[in-house]
UniProtKB/TrEMBL annotation:
Protein name: Cytochrome P450
Cellular compartments annotated: Membrane
Cofactor(s) recorded in Swiss-Prot or TrEMBL: heme
Annotated source species: Hermanssonia centrifuga
Cross-referenced Pfam families: p450
């Protein structure tokens, strides 16, 4: 005769199995209504089909499934966009649905301590940060940075002429240095800013890698985050990077405060934040608790369920043979017409001819620089 304890255990197991079966049936029903996509493994889906360069795999799948397709990344429904029109339809024209962000455990929580605007969930704190960035990077301030841009261009051209084999590293360092000058009002020769620009470039590369789908399993199995640091090398190293980066940026802010006290600084993002810190309420804060504003959506007859991770494949979009038949060639003049003027921009690209700076409410403010 079965004991009461065994009967209770069997009842609990039966309930769990029924719940799991219902979940499988519901997920299958939802998946059938989503855009088509490659088949995957049970439970894990397509997570192990992603390479270390997922944008290349996305282009392969685009050729087979179309410009919009879906994936299952260990239970996380995911939609990948590969053309300008679809990206504009969803991310621009329906930005009220697609303005939030996934959690980004490694990039947002470990590497940057929930303090980077690009990774914040859509909510009050994001809006305050966005407003501060807009005031520092509007058209008026971008005009005041013209001489800075010209000087940076000369340094960049000189560096490329000296050693063009390192062009990628040179471009990253130049971009980071220019942005740092605009944010912290530091000349390129001050405080070893070129070296700091190199460090910022390395930080940006770490963040980009951390955001790649499939790079860290903790993004799909958050319970891994609770492992002790000694058992999680990625977590231990991430905290160390965050500590070093924080010291670097605090040093830059201290330099701006000293210049402000001496009356020697010009308007920049750092001065705006320091002067209006009370208005923006941007002091040390815990992670924003604003919920994602996703909801079920339909596009071209396909369901994009609430909570779906939406990825736009910028690499593939900017190499669309429809608009860039010779995309492998370095040919800036492709953006000019026969008269040497800017040609008609590609539709749905914010008149830029590409989709590099994002979209909707997440459109990059530094573009004005």
């Amino acid at each position: 005769m079965l004991s009461v304890q065994m009967l209770t255990s069997l009842a609990l197991l039966s309930a769990l199995l029924m719940k799991y079966a219902a979940s499988v049936v519901n997920n299958y029903r939802v998946r059938k209504q989503m855009p088509p996509g490659p088949p995957g493994l049970p439970l894990l889906g397509n997570i192990f089909q992603l390479t270390r360069s997922p944008w290349l795999r996305f282009v392969e799948w685009k050729d087979h499934y179309g410009s919009i397709f879906s994936l299952n990344l260990a239970g996380q429904p995911t939609v990948v966009i590969n053309d300008f029109t679809t990206a504009a339809d969803l991310l621009d024209r329906r930005s009220h649905i697609y303005s939030s962000r996934p959690r980004f455990i490694v990039a947002n929580e470990i590497l940057t301590g929930n303090m980077i605007l690009s990774f914040m969930e859509y909510g009050p704190l994001w809006r305050k940060m966005r407003r501060a960035a807009h005031e520092a990077f509007n058209i008026r301030s971008s005009q005041s940075n013209r001489r800075l841009q010209e000087k940076g261009s000369v340094v960049l051209a000189s560096s490329l002429l000296e050693d063009s084999s390192q062009w990628e590293e040179i471009l990253q360092r130049s971009t980071a240095s220019t942005v740092l000058c605009a944010i912290y009002d530091q000349a390129a020769t001050e405080m070893g800013l070129d070296a700091i620009g190199g460090r910022v470039g390395e930080m940006l590369k770490r963040l980009s890698n951390a955001c790649l789908p499939g790079r860290y399993l903790v993004e799909y199995f958050p319970m891994i985050l609770h492992l002790p640091d000694m058992l999680a090398k990625w977590k231990r190293e991430g905290k160390e990077f965050f500590k070093k980066d924080t010291i670097m940026f605090e040093g830059l802010m201290d330099s701006v405060r000293m210049k402000m006290n001496a009356g020697e600084t010009r308007a920049c993002l750092a001065t705006a934040l320091i002067e209006d810190e009370k208005n923006y309420d941007l002091g040390a804060q815990k992670k924003s608790l604003a919920s994602r504003n996703y909801c079920d959506d339909w596009y071209n007859g396909y369901l994009i369920p609430k909570g779906t991770l939406v990825i736009w494949n910028t690499w593939g979009m900017n190499r669309d043979p429809k608009y860039f038949p010779d995309y492998e060639e370095f040919r800036p003049e492709r953006y000019l017409d026969d008269a040497g003027q800017l040609s008609e921009p590609i539709p749905d690209t914010h008149a830029q001819g590409h989709f590099t700076y994002g979209s909707g409410k997440r459109y990059a403010e530094p573009l004005l620089m």
